[in-house]
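Quick question: what would this complex look like in 3D?
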Amino acid sequence: MNAITGALEWLTTGANWQGEKGVLNRLAEHLYFTGVCLAVACLIALPLALWLGHIGKGGALAVNLSNVGRAIPTLAILVLLTMTPLGRHGDLPTLIALVLFAIPPLLTNAYIGMREVDRSVVEAARGMGMSGRQVFLRVELPLAYPLIMTGLRSSTVQVVATAALAAMAGEGGLGRIITYGFAVQNTPQVVAGAILVGGLALLVELVLVLIGKWCDPMRRRTAAV
Amino acid sequence: MDQENCLVTNDWVCVKYLESRSQELIDATVQHVWITAASVLIGLLVAFPLALLARRGKGFAGPVLGLTTALYSIPSLAMFSLLLPLFGLSPALVITGLVLYSLTILVRNVMAGLAAVPEESREAALGLGYGPGRLLWEVELPLALPAILAGVRIATVSTVALTTVGAIVDYGGLGGLIMDGLDSDFKAQVLTASVLCVVLAIVADLLLLLLQRLLTPWTRVRDAAPGGRIRDSRIAKVTEPA
């Protein structure tokens, strides 16, 4: 229990929140990594997955990508990228690693979402004279929405977690509070950092669940029935 | 490039490294394997009672699934750090963290496997006078085995990858070599350990696939039948913590 009170004490000490190595700065770094990488990953993965799902091709790629991604240790990629010449460009190795690990959940879920749209609904839409574009925008996309959001959520969780690991490869983010705590054998600081990282992950997931519900294109329709 | 020189020039690929540090690599791999194996086995032992509890009714299923899913969203670095006051710098810390992660996949798959047991099989067994224990052990478990083993495969592969993070408390198997290589800027060590990690995951997956085939010979007949190839697309929707 000492560690818990110690951690709370660490968290309530104002000095720990200020400065370059303070919580606020580390949190800003963490959110910056997460935001930028998610945006880039979405720009790459979503159009590709939705297009593949719409034309019904490339399923093996979309599904296997997740399985391959699972076998590759994030830590190894972070460290490998840091040691390549890319490592001289500041945050670049971390950003690339985060994008790489954000893509599989987005791609796989969006693809499966598109493919799981009831074929008879798509046929009916075609029969009503909808163009391919209309079928995509008005039928497939709204029906695939829940899984696209699931993909976005797991991808975000993944990125928040990987951004914490970037600290082990010497990069910034909230993970630095933990790794520094380990380096100086300060258990309260380690636990305080863990509470911050874990709290951020749960908070981000909660926010995404709420956004997902709020933006659901089917929300008003089901309510009206 | 001369083989002797690759250690001096710090090449990514270095045969000399493999020769001179083979013992170090073997030790790290052995540690990696036993930490992974212990985690998945303990995970399975914990997942079973949880899954049995969860299928008793919605009142249990909600909390069990909610808790195991929430555990999954906790970043690995935070998970291991939160366990530090309880376990100190020990393998038990790493294994506990990995067990908690494996629960998400294992509990779900055990539940899915048990739920997929045909009601007719259950009724037939009850009609034959099977008690609840014998029904579970001799009828439900064998029929749930394909789904359970599919879960074990996914859990094992992601556990192999996650074990590397244990390096933060010096029990990360090959992850330890990766971190040491980073500190000493030793490229061959980092690349070799990383590749070994992926190889380990693939080998474990193939071995478990083989086990799955041996334990459930009847599924192959179904697989070969047209329309019988229902792959676990649902399972692919779960992603692993980093």
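Answer marked as accepted. Residues 106 and 220 of chain B are 23 Å apart (CA to CA).
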